[in-house]
Amino acid sequence: MGGFLFCRGIKEKNLLDPLPGTGSSPQPNQHQWAGHEAALERVFAVPGVVFLVGGMDTGKTTFGIDLAARAVAAGIPTAIVDADIGQSTVGPPTTVGLKLCSGMGNVARESIRDADGLGFVGALTPAGHMLPLVTGTAKLVARAMAADCKLVIIDTTGSVSGVAGQLQKFSKMDLAPPDIVIAFSRGGELEPILGHTRRFTTAEVIELEVPEAVDTRSVEERTTYRERQFAAYFQAGLSRWRIKPQVFMPSLPPEFDLALLDGIVVGMEDGKGSCVGIGVLENGGARDTLKMVSPVTEGVKGLRLGSIRISTNGRSRGPVNLRNLFQTE
Ligand SMILES: Nc1ncnc2c1ncn2[C@@H]1O[C@H](COP(=O)(O)OP(=O)(O)OP(=O)(O)O)[C@@H](O)[C@H]1O
Ligand SMILES: [Mg+2]
Known about the structure:
This protein is an alpha/beta fold. It is built from seven helices and 14 strands. It has helices at residues 34-45, 60-73, 130-146, 162-175, 191-200, 219-235, 322-326; strands at 49-54, 78-82, 95-100, 117-120, 151-155, 180-185, 204-209, 239-242, 248-249, 264-269, 275-283, 290-294, 302-310, 316-319. The longest helix is centred in the middle third of the chain and has 17 residues, at 130-146. The chain starts with 33 loop residues before the first helix and ends with a helix.
């Protein structure tokens, strides 16, 4: 998407003025934020696919939302693809979420929670779930581009270390090639990933130091945030579905005890390649009365099994290993 035309009116606006009401704008007067402001300006000059990368609590999401808010105000058709499956902002945890931001009066954490598209991953961390994370991200970026978005902001998990972190970021960039990679670093921890970006992709790299104002959050705060995001999703009125054992991907083994599926998160697929929501399986008591609760009421043809159990109040009931559960490879 490198060289698309400017939208009319971009140049008339002072793009460095924080928008009222976003609640997340950096303070441009502070020297520490100069790099962030320059990065915003650069993105406005050459919008395209912008990939945000950084460790935990480095300011990626705040920057991404601020960028989206200012771009929308400037008339740039903008989307956020939230590929952070644990600390989700768009859509519930366990999914990649797409938000088409154009036309929104106020782009902020609260207003982007309802997704315009989802990709089901079924887990809260990328480890062991890289394939649906990467394919889901790429599919939603493609969807944003098909919707004529000129700026597509990809927010990612804070997992950047080791072979797993490198492979995950590399694979996302491989399948959804960015025009600009914005790196939020506290030291040299992003050097391997940025080295790969420079060597293997055509993306422009912008490196930012993380300012002191960017807070870290405790494990408990992260858990509470995630539970709230789940609970907010399931609060929107729950329907109870009766589930046939043939609808699952992967398929259940013969004679499988359906009670073992109790609490597992599932992705609800429309049979046309899109995820329309998530649900939680419920053991109905008798052997053949499996149920599912979800706020989604229609358009579902199949269910993808996830790898965690939760309650609809958002509480985690622990991970599930489907291979162990099915006693198969
Ligand atoms: N520009 C800013 N001005 C003030 N505070 C900020 C700014 N950017 C981030 N913060 C604060 O720093 C914390 C972390 O920011 P943020 O959630 O954007 O980081 P992240 O890299 O997306 O984290 P995560 O690892 O959870 O995805 C938040 O509490 C946020 O309010
Ligand atoms: Mg974030």
